[in-house]
Every structure is written in C-alpha cells, then in structure tokens.
Design a protein that fits this description.
copper, 6-stranded mixed beta sheet, Immunoglobulin-like, 582 residues, globular, mainly beta, 5% helix, Cu-oxidase-like_N, single chain, 3 domains
C-alpha cells in the first residue's frame, strides 16, 4: 500500500486548472469550485483551422481535481450559439440527479447567454472519470478529465507512482461535427467518419501535416508513472499499447481491480483505465511509439480505420544541456504491434481478466438476491423513409435507426426529471418500457424480415432499493457490432458475458458473483451478451445509452426512473433555483 502522489497542477501541461480550495471540516471533505466558460476557439489540426466549442479556450478541457468526499461546485456559462449541458461521467450523483447533465433527461439545456451551477458530492469513489458535453455531438471537443484522489492519508492499494499523467483519446473532424450529424439525420445514412484520432487533442506523426502536433510523454529511467486513460472518442473502441513497455491495469471506471499486466488494453468510448508504466532502469537510447487504433467488426468505411501515435521519450542523464531538455529526435523509434482490427477474441479475453479487488476495504458488494430481471436487445434497425422519399440508409427506402427492445428512444422537449418531480409526466413519457422483447427472434442468427423499430419515450420504473439483473443481448439485424452501454447514476457489476444468444437456463450458472468487475460503461460483445447487476439506491431519472454517438443519435438509449425511498436520505433533493428551463 502506498500513499498517493499529490497532484500538482504542473503535472498536467495540457490544462490550466481554475480551482479555489475552501477549508471545511475534514470529515465532510473540501469544497472545490470551478468556472467553466463555454466559448468558441480557433484550433488548427491537419493543416486546417476551424472554430470549435471549448471550455475556457482549452482543447481538451480543464481537469477537475477532487478527493473522495469533496463537494464540487462548477459554474458553467454558455457563451456559444449552441445549447449546452455537461455530464460528469461516472459520478454517482447520489440524490443530486439535477447535476447529472444529460439534456432533456435531468435538465433542460443551458441556452446561449445563460449559466447553471452543477453541485455534487463525490461519495465512495476515487480514480479517473471524465466530463463531457451531453447534447448533440458537441462532446467531440467539449471534454476533459476528472481526477479523484483518495481521502487524505488513505493510500493507493498499489505502489505509489512517481508521476500521474492524463491520456485522453479523441476524434477529430476537419468539418463541423454539428453539420456532420445534421446531414446524417437528414439523409438517414451513416455520418462521415472522423479524419483522425487524437491523444490529448493531438493527431501525431502518422497523419499528414501533424508531426508538430504530437503528444510526447517525457519520462525518467527507473520510475513508475500512472497513466489515467480516457476514451473520449465519439464512435470508436480503441486498442492501446506502448512499444517495449508492459502496462499494469489497476483501476477501471474509478474502481480498483486486481492488477493485471498486459501489452495492450482495449477501451470503449466512455470508459477509463488507470495503468502503471514502469520505465527502463537506465537510459535505453531509443524512443517508443504509443499507438491507439480502432477495434470494430463493422464493415469497412463505416468507421475511422486509422492509427494515432504519441511518443514516449527518455531523459538522457549524461547529455548536455540539462536532462529536462535533452531529448534526441534522431534516436531509433520502436513501434508496438496492435491486435487485428476485428480481434474479438482478444477483447473477450482481456475483459474476462478484469476482477474487483473484493477486499475488506474495497468489497465487491454484488447483489445476491435479484428482485427484477430484464432482458434488453440492443442493436441497429431501420425506419421507413418519408412517403415518396428516398434515403441513404441500408436501402433506398429506409433510414438507419437503433433501439433497445425494439424501442428507439425519442428525447422529449422538456426534461424527464423535472416532469417527474413536478408530477407532470402525462404527454412527456410513459412508464411501460418492455422488460423483454415483445417479439423474440434469433438475435444473433438470421435477422427477421421486418427490421423496422418503433419510437417512444418510455421508462422503466423501479422502487427504491430494487436489486436488478439486466442481460443486454447484441443483435445482428444489420451486422454484429459491439455496443458500449453507459448507465448514469450507478455503478454495476459485470457478472457474465458470452457469445451467441443468452441461455437463461444455462448461462447464469457461470456468473461470477465473487469478484466481478465494477463499472459504469460496458461493451456488449459483438453477436453476444453481457449480464450486469446493480442496486437501485439512487432516486431520480437515469439515462442508459450506447456511447457510440452515432448509435445514440439513431435512438439506442432508454431511461430508468428510481422512486424515492421512505427515509430522508433516500429521497431526491429538490431542484436548484437556477435549473435551466426549456
């Protein structure tokens, strides 16, 4: 056990942190206050400049630092012509659903010229999470890290690193991303793929005109660094590896795990992974590429099949000028070998190795008794074109759609949580979301003749404290793809996964109820299924959606409504006075 490194702001060269620290009773944590000014900023990538939406003029945005138990206050002021909302991805938001951020779910968006103060307490969490815009495709450039340190004096359950560095994967479009998704929704076809992946906002030397825009991790020999890795890409799961340097995974989605050492990790959009990187004992006389490239089982042309590179550089203690400036660009550069783009077996084997610590200090509190069971199909489908119209979907007469249990979610025009709290749900949503497919079929086999999906704004209603088991089944209606699903407001335990159709008679016997990994985002395997369990101990309306933005745009999302409990600490707090209105 080692005391965690206290992060100085200078460790994060890519961000400027605007934070004021206020002293309160140590048992209650500190108050951390931030100012987020949402503004347009000119940025040049791939030899092309454009104006993008940023926070505080930074791309990626500023890091939110806090400790477990702290109270976080973030004032967001919208100076851009777009509506805005920000989601604090992975924060439990216990009783503070008003601060969760998804537009038209927990709040109306912050309109241009308006502001909103997000307030929440970080309870029982430590590790790496992140924040991002949660409306349209604005999160393409509006995102940043959340670093949660343990409480003062509480050590990491692994050797303390010498330094800690955020590594954020993103996607870059030369075009305006709002125009990209707008065109796709108008035509019913797939959106244009991104022009590059990025590491900390930089595309790197493998793209044209980008050698000067390369993320470089500068290290000393014989040290251990913790990389706080975040996949903020809009539409792609990514493999990541560093040549000649194994990575020890110690934390996923801000939950400690039993350490595993690997050459390559896989990380879906929305997920975070903390890894320990131990450098060579002496100066190696070489530089090392760090590469990230997509994992996909979709047909070519429907995703960005490129590779982003950063560079790991060693200080040479024998060189002059001083070591902090001595990085030789003429050294040999070694590259890692990544898995094949469709290496589903690698992905399955990697995810199966992730296990919770399950210790007395960090227990795996898996629900053993299940009150409600759900079976959700997740995948693509179609909508018909307008009468006498043509589309660019799977056929000339259809548009791409996506659904959960054949329901393509329609965002309301007012926020669901506000409607629920005010008792004005009529005409806004219904509470009859199907617990299982209304028409079962061979989910991973021959698709049905009718691929059309229905539309609706339907919720699942759960009494407070309900123990839930949810099996999410991927379909192959328009091809088998992996779907990363993110659940707001909760962590869940991944108790099982497999390929083919879930067998309710046989598969539950293979569940891991002892030390399953605990997450907030999980990939539903391509042509397979995943089973999760969670306890509905957080009152409010909680979004669950695919974290591939294109599939979200097509409707692969739904929401849970958890009712208040009987005790005062089991009830949703009242809305803040500055809550935006629609």
């Amino acid at each position: 056990m080692a005391t965690p490194y206290r992060l100085p702001c200078c460790c994060y060269a890519l961000v400027t942190v605007l934070v004021l620290f206020f002293s309160v009773d140590a048992t209650e944590g500190a108050i951390r206050e931030y100012q987020f000014d949402v503004q347009m900023t000119n940025v040049t990538r791939l030899c092309s400049s454009k104006s993008i939406v940023t926070v505080n003029g930074q791309f990626p945005g500023p890091t939110v630092f806090a400790r477990e138990g702290d109270f976080v206050v973030i004032r967001v002021v919208n100076h851009v012509p777009y509506n805005m909302s920000i989601h604090w991805h992975g924060i439990r938001q216990l009783r503070s659903g008003w601060a969760d951020g998804p537009a038209y779910i927990t709040q109306c968006p912050i309109q241009s010229g308006q502001s909103y103060v997000y307030k929440f307490t970080i309870t029982g969490q430590r590790g790496t999470l992140w924040w991002h815009a949660h409306i349209s495709w604005l999160r393409a450039t509006v995102y940043g890290p959340i670093v949660i340190l343990p409480k003062p004096g509480v050590p990491y359950p692994f050797p303390a690193p010498y330094d800690e560095v955020p590594v954020l994967f993103g996607e870059w479009w030369t075009a305006d991303t709002e125009a990209v998704i707008s065109q796709a929704l108008q035509t019913g076809g797939g959106p244009n793929v991104s022009d590059a992946f990025t590491i900390n906002g930089l595309p790197g030397p493998l793209y044209n005109c980008s050698a000067k825009d390369t993320f470089k991790l500068k290290v000393k020999p014989g040290k251990t660094y913790m990389l706080r890795i975040i996949n903020a890409a809009l539409n792609d799961e990514l493999f990541f590896s560093i040549a000649g340097h194994p990575l020890t995974v110690v934390d996923v989605d801000a939950v400690y795990i039993k350490p595993i050492t690997v050459e390559t990790i896989i990380i879906t959009p929305g997920q975070t992974t903390n890894v320990l990187l131990t450098t060579k004992p002496s100066y190696p006389g070489a530089t090392y590429y760090m590469l990230a490239a997509p994992y996909s089982t979709a047909r070519p042309g429907t995703f960005d099949n490129t590779t982003v590179a950063g560079i790991l550089e060693y200080e040479d203690p024998t060189s002059s000028p001083p070591p902090h400036a001595a990085f030789d660009k003429n050294l040999p550069a070694l590259k890692p070998t990544l898995p094949q783009i469709n290496d589903t077996s690698f992905v399955a084997n990697y995810t199966a190795r992730l296990r919770s610590l399950a210790t007395a200090e960090y227990p795996a509190d898996v629900p053993r008794e299940v009150h409600r069971r759900f079976f959700f199909t997740v995948g693509l489908g179609t909508h018909p074109c307008a009468v006498n119209g043509t589309c660019q979907g799977p056929t000339n007469s259809s548009r791409f759609a996506a659904s959960v249990n054949n329901v393509s979610f329609v965002l309301p025009t007012t926020a669901l949580l506000q409607s629920h709290f005010a008792g004005k749900s009529r005409g806004v949503y219904s509470s009859n979301f199907p617990a299982a497919p209304l028409v079962p079929f061979n989910y991973t086999g021959t698709p049905p003749n009718n691929t059309n999906v229905s539309n609706g704004t339907k919720l699942v209603v759960l009494p407070y404290g309900t123990s839930v088991e949810l099996v999410m089944q991927g379909t192959s209606i328009l091809g088998a793809e992996s779907h990363p699903l993110h659940l707001h407001g909760f962590n869940f335990f991944v108790v099982g996964q497999g390929f083919g159709n879930f067998d309710p008679a046989k598969d539950p016997a293979k569940y891991n109820l002892v030390d399953p990994v605990e997450r907030n985002t999980v990939g539903v395997p391509a042509a397979g299924w995943v089973a999760i369990r969670f306890r509905a101990d957080n009152p409010g309306v909680w979004f669950m959606h695919c974290h591939l933005e294109v599939h979200v745009s097509w409707g692969l999302k739904m929401a849970w409504l958890v009712l208040d409990g009987e005790r005062p600490n089991e009830k949703l707090l009242p809305p803040p006075s500055d809550l935006p209105t629609c």
